[in-house]
């Protein structure tokens, strides 16, 4: 019997959703960083084995929208809860057990169809004492809608296999939605921008927050050589930010570009010639046209 289904991973920023997805899919598909809201778009990774296909939807962190980009993200989370089989609601060591607001603990709980199985994933068990884990578990166990509470450490790949097996057990018989060779619905361009975005967040530490966006302007394979030429654009909100991204004598940007190129070459399995340009666009996150141009269009979710 072949099983398949759709699984959404929902949870606050930084709980480890992308890390889990990467641990399962084993490819660099979702940007990972120490900072919240790295993953802006719904990203799916696809897990395949001989008798099962699981399509994972990663979500942006759940938060209060502060600008149009934020609204896009919330809407994208809502949509990612439709037509799914399993919801993985992830919390981590920073989860605070609430005193009274039971029903509100899992965002969107009321909107989740009864046919959807809900697993609460307690991630980062590598730094949660067992007694605390038990307390979190018994908190979530009191919800009728919660099917199971499962502890994992995504970063140490602890109990991830177990989680996969539980998911497989719960899935129904179904078709293979995607060809085996596809591990993500993201285009190569999306993968390239995610990798560059991850490097910016890694290299800029706390200096540049979330006012940057990356888009790939050209992506072309050469006819005569196995090389892909890529031009990418980083936009930021202030010229002071542009200066910081470029760095003294362009060193910062060179570092970002080099690290990104290495990962892109691995992901695309090809040599890559990468050029990155930095531009200033004040308030781009509140500019509907600019958001649309960058693929953040609510109509497209
Ligand atoms: P997301 O925002 O939910 O997608 O979270 P990320 O996957 O980007 O992870 C946020 C941070 O938590 C990163 O610094 C990860 O390395 C870290 N992290 C993820 N999983 C674990 C884990 O199991 N244990 C520990 N200690 N850290 C983790
Ligand atoms: Mg993420």
Summed up, what is this model?
With 301 residues, the protein is α/β, with parallel strands linked by helices.
Distinct ligand kinds: guanosine-5'-diphosphate, magnesium ion
Total helices: the number is 8
Tell me what portion of residues adopts beta-strand conformation.
15-25%
Strand order of the largest sheet: 2-3-1-4-5-6
Radius of gyration: 20 Å
Low-confidence stretches: 30-41
Helix content percent band? 25-40%
Name the average pLDDT: 80
Assembly state of the chains shown: single chain
Query: In total, how many beta strands?
Result: 9
Biggest sheet, open or closed, and with what strands and sense? 6 strands, mixed
Distance between the termini: 32 Å
Strand-pairing-aware structural class:
alpha/beta
Series of secondary-structure elements, N-terminal to C-terminal: EHEEHEEHEHHEEHHEH
Instruction: Tell the overall outline.
Output: globular
What does this structure look like?
With 301 residues, this protein is α/β, with parallel strands linked by helices. It has 8 helices and 9 strands. It has helices at residues 17-25, 68-80, 130-141, 160-170, 188-204, 239-246, 251-268, 288-293, and strands at residues 3-11, 43-49, 52-58, 86-91, 117-122, 146-151, 213-221, 227-236, 271-280. The protein has a 6-stranded mixed sheet with strand order 2-3-1-4-5-6, with helices on both faces. A 3-stranded mixed sheet has the order 7-8-9. α5 (188-204) runs antiparallel to α7. The protein is globular. The two termini are 32 Å apart. Bound molecules: guanosine-5'-diphosphate and magnesium ion. The site of guanosine-5'-diphosphate has 21 residues, from α1. Magnesium ion (MG) is lined by residues 17-18, 30, 38-39.
